[in-house]
Amino acid sequence: MPSCSRVAVIGAGAAGLAAARELRREGHAPVVFERAAAVGGTWRYDAAEDAADPLGAGGAHSSLYASLRTNLPRESMGFLDFPFVAGRSSADPRRFPGHPEVLRYLEAFARRFDLLGLVRFETEVVSVRRSRDDGAGAAGWRVSYRSRRPDGAGGEPEEEVFDAVVVCNGHFTEPRVAAIAGVHCWPGKQMHSHSYRVPDPFRGQVVMVIGYQPSGMDISRDIAGVAKEVHVAMRSEPPYQMHTTTATGHANLWLHSCTIERAEEDGSLVFQDGSKIKADVVLHCTGYKYNFPFLGDSDDELAGAISVDDNRVGPLYKHVFPPMLAPHVSFIGLPFRTIPFLVFQLQSKWVAGVLSGRLELPSQEAMMRDVDAFYSDMEARGCAKRRTHDLGQGNPFEYEDWVAEQCGLGRMEGWRKGMFVATCKNLADRPDSYRDEWDDDHLLPQAHQDFRKHSY
Ligand code: FAD
């Protein structure tokens, strides 16, 4: 018979909200810990750039910039049964809306499913440890947390024991920075996209952007409107060393398919092929690191069962369950290059069903074998460890469909897959205008027909 658990959910971003909803739907009692004063996580824009540390180490604020619009069309981005559609009163009905519209959507989701009462705001989880039944206290997972006092200071840590812990703390706040030899003697300024907000501070400057994933693509164009020159250094595969420079349609923006090898005291940045550019700023758009500071210290059982190595969180069965701790510890939202909210919802349904005993996991040994086989397969394909949670490698949508099937749902809707693929192609073909011109209108009627099944 399905059983009910008291579950600690860490984080009230999109993943934590999805988890709270699915856990409660399954009959569990979730308590959501959120260090901020409101829900939304990443989608709570913070206008203050981190002037004290522009490389952003330890900055817990959101990584959004002012001009950010979604990189997925709203129809494909929303949760399965709470469509992200523009109503008559929508403040921003565009298909690729600005970030405030996403926050409004998440707030509406939290209100619609009555989740706000489950969240303990301004409460940061500082540690999670196994609590053994020694006769003195309950067995389970001891969660220590610190709530902000009315005077703004952090209060004394408090503790509570839960049956299970679902980690939803996000992975876009701990910057990864490119290593550049000699950069400490280089006179320019360095910054990470985590701290980038608006282009104005770059007026008249020569800016070297490192990385050309979605943030690098957006920010280089944002800055090109005011800067003297913007150069983007990016890997080209293979071979990394071949230096070609591409015009972009912006008179002052160049893409260099070559990485920066070193920085010199005269302000030069030297590419791998020896060519140089004198720049005022290096802007690292080089992504983020997974970080779980609350998961035990080195002699703790948790730290022994799960670790981060070169951005691989592991071992994890299907990116969710550490085999040695399953099903009581789980992670929602680690995969990238996917449709995030959908994956959060599917993973949350799976975790909720497994915790209640309605769905079954393989044995610990079988899960470990699956993880080992996945790692071996990555190695055989020459895929770097840091891409472990990259769903853009391998068969498209295989993972999403697999999790959906575990939960007894059909495969992901064809129109949603089609929109994702069409948007990736459109982004590559029309990086300047993909949010305003597209060719996948034929998928909209089916999407809206599916949405009509949900009366929210
Ligand atoms: P977060 O939103 O980061 O939420 C984590 C929450 O956990 C935060 O509220 C944080 O305060 C809290 N927390 C962390 N540690 C603790 C702790 N110890 N105790 C208590 N609380 C804690 N996705 C899309 O679908 N479409 C897009 O267009 C898109 N654009 C993006 C643009 C940028 C620049 C970035 C960075 C991401 C973008 N994403 C986009 C991905 C986006 O991150 C996901 O959509 C999603 O919002 C992530 O949700 P999350 O809940 O996993 O993490």
TrEMBL record:
Keyword check for Nucleus: no
Swiss-Prot/TrEMBL keywords: FAD, Flavoprotein, Monooxygenase, NADP, Oxidoreductase
Enzyme Commission no: 1.-.-.-
Domain of life: Eukaryota
Pfam families (UniProt xref): FMO-like
Coiled coil regions, renumbered to chain: none
Cofactor: FAD
Keyword Nucleus: no
One GO MF term attached to the UniProt entry: flavin adenine dinucleotide binding
Family of this protein: Belongs to the FMO family.
Protein name: Flavin-containing monooxygenase
